Amino acid sequence: MNKNIITGLISATLLLTASASVMADQGQQISSNAYKMVLVEDVPGVNALQTGHVEEGLNATLAASKYTVDDYSRNVNLCAGYVQMSNMEKAQKACSAAVKSARSLVAVPSMSVRAYAYNNRGVMKLMNHDNLGALADFKRAAKVDNSSIYKHNLARLEAALNTAQTGTL
Fold first, then answer.
1. DSSP 8-state code for residue 7
2. Which residue has the higher pLDDT, 120 or 22?
3. Mean pLDDT estimate for the chain
4. How far apart are CA 140 and CA 151, in angstroms?
5. What residue range is the signal peptide (predicted)?
6. Fewer Cβ within 10 Å of end Cβ, the chain: N or C?
7. CA atoms within 13 A on the CB side of 3
8. DSSP state at residue 102
9. Stretch (H or E) spanning 18
10. What CATH number should be reported for the domain holding residue 23?
11. What per-residue confidence (pLDDT) applies to 117?
């Protein structure tokens, strides 16, 4: 299972995303301040999600047969897509389903792969103004996978929380 990063800049009402590979091809730099999400490749709709055709990507992912894609991979990508669309009710359901699948399914053997679900749910929680829940999910992801993606999200949120505590926003 491969992963591709979707980078998002989170503000109160907006999530802008772009594929890391697309950004590099265009010679643009990815913002070091952005929270990062993960997509599972080889899932119907992933290319559309990566290129910003979110509704098309979600529809393709939802329409895929259960024989084409497992529930875990489907929900990881749906989580990222719904966050991109700011549909937080559906994002919460998909993100939580991905985490539940990651914990219980034998089809998800790698702890590194399980980190995808925790990371994406952490970004969703940030969008829902649940900083402590996001912090817990980022810590879980970073604990089981030494990837720079998870370390980045965790460090960025910890810095923001520390700044807020000291009153130096």
1. E
2. 120
3. 79
4. 11
5. 1-24
6. C
7. 19
8. H
9. strand 15-19
10. 1.25.40.10
11. 93
Please indicate whether residue 110 or residue 56 has the higher confidence score (pLDDT): 56
Domain containing 48: what range? 3-166
Predicted confidence at residue 109, as pLDDT, reads 55
Residue 61 near residue 77, CB atoms below 8 Å: yes
Residue 2, SS3 per DSSP: coil
Count up the domains in the chain and report the number: 1
Q: What is the pTM of this model?
A: 0.78
For 20-73, give the DSSP string.
Answer: HHHHHHTTPPPPTT-EEEEEESSSTTHHHHHTT-HHHHHHHHHHS-TTTS-HHH
Task: Copy the structure tokens of residue 30.
Answer: 């990815």
Angle in degrees, CA 14, 23, 21, rounded to 5 = 115
Amino acid at 113: V
- Mean pLDDT over 76-92 rounds to 96
Please report, for residues 73, 74, 108, the alpha-carbon distance to residue 17 in angstroms, rounded to integers and kept in the order given. 19, 19, 26
> Which single residue is written with the structure tokens 């960025």?
156
Tokens of 86: 């700011």
How large a percentage of the chain has pLDDT more than 90? Answer: 57
Structure tokens at 50: 């990566």
Contacts of 95 (CB under 8 A, 6+ apart): 75, 79, 83, 117, 120, 121, 124
